[in-house]
């Protein structure tokens, strides 16, 4: 009681607390630091000690409260605090304690999401937190960068159940993105996050882009440099029933030994890994309507355009038009 009434500064009480801690009196140290907090909540060293002490005792909610105070009173501390704070996402009790802070008006939330998206060993726990009922997500440029990373990592981790729950809730995402080919969305630079929207990658060796065909419809143009092979474009699709992809090769300039195929792979279910593929588009008739079926009985499919650039000096190019998804009653030929 004499300590609580002593005319000491928060810094002085913090030093007393450190002395007691060094002497093995953790309870006495805690009393001194709590007394310091009553004098001022703006002393970062005091809040940090109390936060660390609470977390050591698995008292997560009080620990997060102290971190919240630090971040609000001293935003420059975010670089030190947020990596530690993000680790709370990994445990269910940590996510429960974080939920009250998951608000669009929280000044440190956008930065927290980006740090967590970049640093956590798995994105699935963060996706679970974002999909919780009552969570309000910020819509800032930094937050949108975080959502892009989270969505991409969930796909890489094959965490498609969480992906499908969280994606419609993200600011900038359109719930219908995965229910079609999204060509008009590409043409109008609509929002969304790959691979729910088309992902043409960042490689200079291969990729793709939307193109206007006769000013009436939207197609896709893919390219692959000589000697390279891989996905020039990818997109996730939700199937309700069984679907076939229809398309036409509008134009192409290809190198010797080049090849290109649509490959559709089932993801996120007991049929994960089942796939179908088209014939080689470099050998199919230009202007002819073509189709191939997506894997049957698969709610989520990853559609890839796999392109090998062949041998030459210039990239191989293919322009695809007439793209559509058509329901199928039963599997058919390609």
Short description:
The protein has 334 residues and is of the alpha+beta class. The protein is 36% helix and 23% strand. α4 runs antiparallel to α5 and α6 crosses α8.
Descriptive notes:
The structure is a single chain. This protein is α+β, with helices and mostly antiparallel strands. Helices cover 36% and strands 23% of the residues. The protein has twelve helices and nine strands. The strands form two sheets. The chain has a five-stranded antiparallel β-sheet with strand order 1-2-9-4-7. Strands 3-8-5-6 form a four-stranded antiparallel β-sheet, with no helix packed on it. Strand 1 and strand 2 form a beta hairpin. The relative contact order is 0.09.
Largest sheet: 5 strands, antiparallel
| Average pLDDT taken over every residue | 87
Question: What sort of overall outline do the alpha carbons produce when their principal axes are compared?
Answer: elongated
The end-to-end distance, rounded to whole angstroms, is 84 Å
By DSSP (H or I, 4+ residues per run), the number of helices equals 12
Helix content: 25-40%
Content-based structural category? alpha+beta
Residues in β-strands, percent: 15-25%
Strand order of the largest sheet: 1-2-9-4-7
List the uncertain runs.
Answer: none
Task: Give the radius of gyration.
Answer: 27 Å
Strand tally: 9
Order of helices and strands: HHHHHHHHHHHHEEEEEEEEE
